[in-house]
Design goal:
Elements lengths: L3 E5 L2 H12 L6 E7 L2 E3 L2 E4 L1 E7 L3 H15 L5 E7 L3 E7 L3 H5 L4 H15 L7 E6 L2 H23 L3 E2 L5 H11 L5 E6 L6 E6 L2
Parallel strand pairs: 7-8
Antiparallel strand pairs: 1-5, 2-5, 3-4, 6-7, 9-11, 10-11
Helix pairs in contact: 2-4, 5-6
Length: 205
Amino acid sequence: MEALEKSARTVAEAIEAGLAELGLPRDQVQVEVLEEPRSLFGLVGHHARVRLRPVGTPADQAVEVLARMLSLAGLEATPSVTGSDAEHVRIVLQGRDVSIVIGKHGQTLQALQHLTNLIVNRHRSERRRIILDAEHYRERREIALQAMAMRAAKRAQETGKEVIMEPLPAIERRVVHLTLQQVPGVETRSMGEEPERRVIVIPAG
């Protein structure tokens, strides 16, 4: 669908009229205010004018954005939507280069996810979180992190000394903190600066 321009007394009225004509909800349209309303002595001089550009659903736009970025990077990986609700859109990447897309500790996958979220949500009044996965990486990595956290906790309990884990991104540190939250005899905290920030497992007391 092509862009549509509408005029009305206020910006809000112009947007509402444009959405009605397009038959689309607000989160599927990018709005550009071309002209603010102006008045003279309380009388309407110039109406507000806006341009509405359909951008599709968050899921459609996320797939389009990802496909474009992967193509520009020369990577063979295809995004497809596996689930969508009012808060999240889940997308899985498949293809020859998914291991490259995942990157070390999932950092490349996380960067792609961050960029996609920025682009998809920049003009939306209601944000939709885009979650990327490839080869069930997130599930496998969470299991590995939980096992790593439990080993660190056991070592801290047995030695009575702090155990400093390897540097982890924020989303993975959170998995460690949550895993050990209910484990008796240990506490956790983070230390250091990104990208070298780590979790310390501390014997309680």
